User: Which sequence fits this backbone?
């Protein structure tokens, strides 16, 4: 590795269903409360029990929002998981396990020797018993051992455990004794280069996923009805909105299909409230006819498309950003739409509210993209940005739903809120919504909708520039790739810039063209196979990308992927 | 009672002479007028097909959407604003083929909407293809030797799924249709109304005279769903009337714990909400 990163990576691994998530979430929060910046990333199989899973927490003294490819501390609850993930351990790292059999696995022991990894068997169940705890508290012993390796005081961990489990029927003192058992043992697991905690007090920071931030954006943005069909990695939005529904009053309906969810959104939006749905690629495909319907009927519509890896059912619980082309082209016929992509919880919170505003203001379908990497990773944030003011656009007091206007946006009547009834139609229609097949009337309406798209294009922002603005090398990307690029720039003080697209369709190209004119070395970076944003930019500007960092193996862009690309 | 003319507009009908849709639209207008539902307080979602071509022929709030999807769109509108009288209008093709999941789940969830199913036993707008209600063996478009599958009986399907209101009526009997529609609209829950519709172009055999000979009106609504199911059979007679009504099952909305103490409608609740107290829980 050319650059030494100012971070340490801890990886909990085990069989899916062994409690890896609980361990990881507790550790993330406790490390945050110990004033570490954290970023937690999950890998797990598409099944309930068995298969190997990992919960990786990177810690640093400065803000980080990405993962490293390799880990420095591997904590294993299962032999198969250990065997798989030990390959991702750095040289001279440490590995702890609660299964003595691992020491008889020659494949593992050979690798430990080769990489000079210090391994240690921790008899967690016995230690838990010794501390007068139950076998299920063995995981607390492991956290204690981790705190021993990191040389941290257990106060923050103890406080969190007492708080987290206070309403459960658990012997909290025994939990704490188990942590102490791990913390106070002599394990000989010293490790070099442990970053210092931040000098900032981080206890007030929040540990939040991208999907939770989207849900909060929906609540902030005045959402009143949420319809969805379960599909990873979109489902946790349903979970958050469902679990908070008594406080928000939001109507929650788990629909019988994605088509139903999309149609219910159309019905509720048309009736005049704010509604949304979320899905992943397969479900999104089912919604495409409804998206086309929203386009021609000029009905506000919002779908959150949480991408995962692959076509068909793909690699369901892994990440990717291969649905941009689908989002931009979804639905038959030609109609205006807006495609936006989030990249972390803060942008997710803000852009979700913007998406609701755009859907209503321009009366068109909005696709808000996220990825499994953003949806499910745990970010540490001080706060979310200030909420966006709700803008419902031109709500009308006349009943002409498709009135021709200068900017293409017709004043929008709401059923029963105007004096007379009105008609909206998926057939091509007149200003009154009456079906038409007359050439002039068809063109009048298609022209109006085209104008609306032009108005939208004028009002959405150009991409954002991060990093060293006058650098010669400029990455161009969207979605989850933003955070590893920025972490690279800041952590390794790299002399590069990054042009980040949030608003992708209609596509703004002024800033991008300026980079070309200045003769910058442009590198396309995307978490997909073919460079889908790149194709859009090429189509609009004629520019052909000669340098591309593309990755489509279900894994996110790790910080090392960028460093290796720059210094092969 | 509201003046019937208020539901009329000046859009020229495009149905074939004699089409059952004329009678059906008359009955919808009469029912709304007699129930004092202002055109502006009613909302109808329309399917694609000859029935869907009625979307712009009636002066009430309407949305002409996609084939087979008028039910979930109507539900979305009703949940957003319960003050609207909401009717999902759909044909036998749309509801039994692409839209069958919506019918079954609308019944199960018992949303407070009325589903009008125009049963003319064929896809008429696309010139007479078979639907799931076309008689077995009947020669149809592209089926010179007759349709090879069995039929679905709409009213039976609805009753088998424990619908809280199921009725059958006939497009040639405006008075009965009006009466049934009024009761269906007044029913608190999901009402399914199957309308046997005369199609003078693609289902000539089922002529008004044939209907007159075969229809027998039910005198009373049955006490049990099982008795209702028995009378849905159309082999010898076509029974019309209300097969069954159950008034004790709550609607979907009534069952939502988080809406029980809220009297406003979702359409009147769009405003920014402070998320600070939610965010605190992420510490």
Assistant:
């Amino acid at each position: 590795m050319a650059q030494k990163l100012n971070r340490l990576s801890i990886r909990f691994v085990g069989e899916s269903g062994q409690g890896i998530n609980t361990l990881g979430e507790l550790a993330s929060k406790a490390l945050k409360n110990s004033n570490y910046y954290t970023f937690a990333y999950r890998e797990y199989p598409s099944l309930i029990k068995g298969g190997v899973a990992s919960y990786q927490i990177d810690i640093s003294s400065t803000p980080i929002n990405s993962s490293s490819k390799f880990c420095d501390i591997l904590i294993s609850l299962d032999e198969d998981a250990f065997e798989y993930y030990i390959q991702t351990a750095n040289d001279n790292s440490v590995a702890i396990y609660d299964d003595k059999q691992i020491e008889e696995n020659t494949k593992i022991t050979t690798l430990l020797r080769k990489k000079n990894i210090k391994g240690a068997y921790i008899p967690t169940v016995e230690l838990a018993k010794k501390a007068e705890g139950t076998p299920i508290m063995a995981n607390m012993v492991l956290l204690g051992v981790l705190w021993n390796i990191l040389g941290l005081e257990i106060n923050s961990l103890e406080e969190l455990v007492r708080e987290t489990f206070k309403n459960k029927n658990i012997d909290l003192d025994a939990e704490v004794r188990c942590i102490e058992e791990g913390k106070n043992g002599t394990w000989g697991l010293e490790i070099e280069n442990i970053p210092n905690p931040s000098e900032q007090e981080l206890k007030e920071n929040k540990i939040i996923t991208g999907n939770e931030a989207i849900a909060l954006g929906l609540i902030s943005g005045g959402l009143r009805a949420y319809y969805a069909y379960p599909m990873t990695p979109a489902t946790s939005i349903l979970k958050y909105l469902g679990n908070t529904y008594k406080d928000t009053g939001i109507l929650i309906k788990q629909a019988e299909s994605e088509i139903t969810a999309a149609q219910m959104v159309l019905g509720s939006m048309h009736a005049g409230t704010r509604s949304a749905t979320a899905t992943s690629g397969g479900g999104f495909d089912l919604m495409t006819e409804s998206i086309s319907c929203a386009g021609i009927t000029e009905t506000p519509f919002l779908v959150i498309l949480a991408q995962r890896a692959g076509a068909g059912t793909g690699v369901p619980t892994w990440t990717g950003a291969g649905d941009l082309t689908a989002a931009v082209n979804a639905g038959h016929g030609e109609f205006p739409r807006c495609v936006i992509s989030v990249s972390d919880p803060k942008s997710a919170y803000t852009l979700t509210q913007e998406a609701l505003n755009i859907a209503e203001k321009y009366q068109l379908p909005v696709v808000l993209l996220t990825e499994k990497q953003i949806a499910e990773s745990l970010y540490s944030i001080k706060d979310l940005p200030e909420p966006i003011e709700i803008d419902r656009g031109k709500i009308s007091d006349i009943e002409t739903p498709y009135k021709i206007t200068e900017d293409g946006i017709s004043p929008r009547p709401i059923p029963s809120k105007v004096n007379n009834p009105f008609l909206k139609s998926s057939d091509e229609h007149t200003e009154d919504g009456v079906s038409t097949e007359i050439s002039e009337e068809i063109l009048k309406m298609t022209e109006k909708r085209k104008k609306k798209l032009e108005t939208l294009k004028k009002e959405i922002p150009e991409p954002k520039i991060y990093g060293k603005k006058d650098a010669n090398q400029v990455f161009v990307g969207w979605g989850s790739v933003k955070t590893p690029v920025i972490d690279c720039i800041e952590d390794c003080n790299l002399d590069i810039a990054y042009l980040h697209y949030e608003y992708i369709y209609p596509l703004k190209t002024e800033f991008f063209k300026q980079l070309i004119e200045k003769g910058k070395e442009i590198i396309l970076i995307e978490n997909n196979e073919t460079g889908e944003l790149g194709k859009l930019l090429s189509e609009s500007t004629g520019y052909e990308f000669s340098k591309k960092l593309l990755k489509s193996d279900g894994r996110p862009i790790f910080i090392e992927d960028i460093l290796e690309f720059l210094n092969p | 009672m509201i003046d019937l003319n208020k539901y009329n507009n000046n859009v020229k009908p495009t149905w074939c002479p004699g089409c059952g849709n004329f009678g059906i639209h008359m009955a919808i207008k009469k029912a709304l007028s007699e129930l004092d539902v202002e055109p502006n307080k009613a909302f109808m979602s329309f399917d694609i097909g000859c029935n869907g071509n009625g979307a712009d022929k009636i002066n009430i709030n309407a949305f002409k959407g996609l084939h087979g999807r008028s039910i979930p769109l109507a539900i979305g509108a009703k949940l957003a604003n319960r003050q609207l009288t909401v009717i999902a209008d759909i044909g036998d093709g749309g509801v039994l083929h692409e839209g069958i999941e919506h019918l079954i789940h609308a019944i199960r969830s018992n949303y407070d909407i009325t589903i009008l199913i125009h049963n003319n036993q064929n896809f008429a707008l696309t010139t007479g293809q078979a639907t799931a209600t076309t008689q077995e063996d009947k020669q149809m478009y592209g089926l010179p030797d007759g349709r090879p599958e069995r039929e679905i009986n709409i009213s039976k399907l609805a009753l088998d799924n424990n619908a809280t209101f199921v009725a059958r009526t006939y497009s040639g009997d405006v008075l009965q249709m009006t009466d049934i529609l009024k009761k269906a609209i007044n029913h608190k829950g999901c009402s399914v109304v199957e309308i046997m519709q005369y199609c003078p172009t693609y289902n000539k055999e089922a002529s008004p005279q044939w209907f007159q000979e075969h229809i027998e009106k039910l005198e009373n609504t049955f006490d049990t769903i099982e008795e209702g199911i028995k009378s849905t059979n159309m082999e010898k007679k076509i029974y019309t009337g209300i097969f069954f009504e159950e008034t004790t099952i709550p609607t979907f909305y009534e069952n939502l714990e988080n809406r029980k103490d809220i009297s406003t409608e979702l359409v009147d609740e769009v405003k920014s909400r402070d998320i600070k107290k939610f965010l605190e829980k992420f510490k």
Summary: Chain A has 20 helices and 21 strands. Chain A touches chain B through 71 residues (CB under 8 Å). The first strand of chain A starts at residue 8 and ends at 15. The longest helix of chain A spans residues 439-459.
